[in-house]
Amino acid sequence: MKNLIAALLISASGLSASAQGNNYVQNYKKFDNLAMTPPMGWNSWNKFACNVDEGLIRQTADAMVSSGMRDAGYTYINIDDCWHGERDSLGFIHEDPKRFPSGMKALADYIHSKGLKMGIYSDAGSQTCGGRPGSRGFEFQDAKTYASWGIDYLKYDWCNTDGLKAEGAYKTITAALRKAGRPMVLSICEWGTDKPWAWGPEVGHLWRTTGDIYNCFDCIEDNGTWKAWGVMQILDKQEGLRKYAGPGHWNDPDMLEIGNGKLTPSEDRAHFSMWAMIAAPLIAGNDLRNMNQETKAVLNNKNVIAVNQDVLGIQGFKYAVRDSVEIWFKPLNQGKWAVAFLNRSKNVKKINFDWKAETVKDEIFKKDLNSQQQVYKLKNLWTNKASGTTKSSLTAKLPAHDILMMQLEK
Ligand code: GLA
Questions:
Q1: Which of 60, 333, 340, 400 is the most exposed place for a label (fewest CB within 10 A)?
Q2: Ligand 1 binding pocket mutation candidate from 80, 187, 188, 208 (most atoms within 8 A of CB)
């Protein structure tokens, strides 16, 4: 009887469930065919933290073009935390009118006019890590707003999410982005707590594997309730995760600290090389408007970028550690390989690597270097010079915290 009355009431009101717009079936899967190689771009957080405004973002877009970075493959200009103003009486989010007086739509138009794409930041909880309005309860509205602004990339953080389940929360924002209809890269920033590599590949395009990077090569910054990690500490935390990465779904060991003044030139090179070797997103985190030649040369090294952007999208692996020198391999397209010798110690180290005596096999992605039978030509990716073949042993002296990175080709 009750059901009958309810049905009569609905039909009397003249609105069926579907006419009220309730027939939408959620699509919890990320947009396909995005980030088929690790995303490349810039993000404001490492250098500028909450000091973001439209002047900085426009100038950064200009600098990405004039420095040659756009032509080297960098695409995304990502505003991190603190761009937010307030929600209006209907719940729609607005940009901070003082910092972004021209509005996000105008900014996105400007970025697009430079042949670049724009990213923005929000948080699955009630507030962002910087205390700005989070998207919890406003996911569909926010996705719609970002789409109307022309946003191409969303980094979605995990502060103030008490009681939320990560997988469900990220699926909700994915469904919201789907419903809004504008293809966007979804960057899951959950710090690896709930194993995002296990559920992330269908939901987002990249997922942070750790807490925040700290601007040092080899240190831990202890903030009491949380720690931030040096470049080497972050690298160590990628252990065991390579099988989860591939085209459209990447492990994200956080943004680059290159050019931020704390790493030596060799440490900058090592940082960039290792992020390339592990198929990490290459998101610069420095002031692109004021780069010295050394920083520009590192970020624009086309050989190293090509290793990172290789179409196979295979994350490299640590093959061996010998006297504090780590030896990493990454299988590349067309039977090529990249190799990196990373000196983690504070002393100069001698390398002596007899290719014919080594058995290099990628058991997960089924690739075999076979240097016993196959002769490869070597190219040093930092000097851009041919460097002999695998017929003879490689001997070299590697300075402290430096890297030797080469490509092997038949
Ligand atoms: C978290 C993230 C960082 C950055 C800040 C912003 O710490 O992990 O990458 O986005 O929040 O507040």
A1: 333
A2: 80
